[in-house]
Automatic annotation (TrEMBL):
Regions crossing the membrane: 52-72
Organism name: Chrysotila carterae
GO molecular function: oxidoreductase activity
Annotated family: Belongs to the short-chain dehydrogenases/reductases (SDR) family.
Amino acid composition bias (Basic residues), ranges on this chain: 15-28
Regions of compositional bias (Low complexity) in chain numbering: 255-264
Protein name: Very-long-chain 3-oxoacyl-CoA reductase
Keywords for the protein's UniProt record, in alphabetical order: Membrane, Oxidoreductase, Transmembrane, Transmembrane helix
Source species taxonomy: Eukaryota, Haptista, Haptophyta, Prymnesiophyceae, Isochrysidales
Feature: compositional bias, Polar residues: 1-14
InterPro entries, per the entry: NAD(P)-bd_dom_sf, SDR_fam, VLCFA-Steroid_DH
């Protein structure tokens, strides 16, 4: 072996510098690589986290706004004066429950009230009750069976209503079923009644008052519905009206007048 001179040591150092030794431990090299990739991941992560945070904020903002709008529409917004739409208010299913309460409230606010329901004796009783409580209010009634509304009866009702200055129509009559069932489990007569009483009644009653409202350029149609109408529910094959399908003819509101139908 040749003795190592100063020149040979210097040249070997230069060679080492030109060709650096490969890393002695493979594990060390892996650690360096993974650190590098996690650094890159950390650079990507903030963008992803920011994006998710933005998405969450947008969803939350939408929910808060929707809730605020609901509060405004149901509680805060000042009540409209039903009398300004016209002299008469027509309420279907007016002999019981919500319909009866609506009839009394509309009378309290100065509207003449047309009560529509199926039982003539109950109609007479509610008419007497209303007249006693609000002697200055005109009350009329019409017995209509909405589960079997014939074309002839429909035209008769439309004729009666056309002679009145109907400002407000409350499409209140409606039914659900006694317990939850799948849509295919309902009997044909139940489906038929749900359609006639919930959907057909709303459609034909709205058609009956609409020409007069359009002539006078004033009117409001209020459709009663279940909160379940907001979203389809299994086991409640809902046949339902849209609760928001009310329109003010004089406001030029273009809300849909016709009922919606959902079966689930
Ligand atoms: N009450 C609730 O918890 C609730 C919940 C969600 C939605 N709703 C909706 O709100 C509206 C009113 O409900 P409600 O509980 O107040 O009703 P309700 O107390 O059962 O009163 C129903 C009214 O509709 C009349 N009616 C029923 N079937 C009829 C038919 N085939 N033809 C003509 N009139 C008929 C009834 O007349 P008779 O008196 O002669 O039977 C009665 O005046 C309905 O559209 C209902 O779907 C109610």
């Amino acid at each position: 072996r040749a003795p190592r001179t100063a020149t040979s040591v210097a040249s070997s150092c230069t060679a080492r510098r030109r060709h650096p030794k490969p890393p002695r431990h493979r594990a060390f090299s892996h650690t360096a690589q993974s650190a590098d990739s996690s650094n890159r991941a950390f650079q990507v992560m903030p963008t992803l986290v920011d994006g998710l945070a933005l998405l969450a904020a947008a969803i939350l903002g939408y929910q808060v706004l929707s809730f605020a709008q609901l509060l405004y529409r149901t509680i805060i917004r000042p009540a409209k004066n039903p009398r300004k739409y016209g002299k008469w208010a027509v309420v279907t299913g007016a002999t019981d429950g919500i319909g009866k309460a609506m009839a009394f409230e509309l009378a309290r606010r100065g509207c003449s009230v047309m009560l529509i329901s199926r039982s003539a004796d109950k109609l007479a009783a509610v008419k007497a009750e209303l007249s006693e409580k609000y002697p200055n209010v005109e009350v009329a009634c019409e017995a209509v069976e909405f589960s079997s509304l014939t074309e002839t009866r429909r035209s008769q009702v439309a004729e009666v209503l056309d002679k009145l200055e109907v400002g407000v129509l409350v499409n209140n009559v409606g039914m659900s079923y006694p317990f939850c069932q799948w849509f295919h489990e309902l009997s044909d007569s139940e489906v038929s009644n749900l359609l006639s009483i919930n959907i057909d009644s709303t459609t034909w009653m709205t058609r009956a008052v609409l020409p007069g409202m359009l002539r006078r350029k004033s009117g409001a149609v209020v459709n009663l519905s279940s909160a379940a109408a907001q979203s389809p529910l299994p086991l409640l094959a809902q046949v339902k009206r849209r609760p928001d399908a009310d329109a003010d003819a004089d406001d030029g509101d273009d809300a849909p007048l016709l009922p919606a139908f959902t079966a689930s």
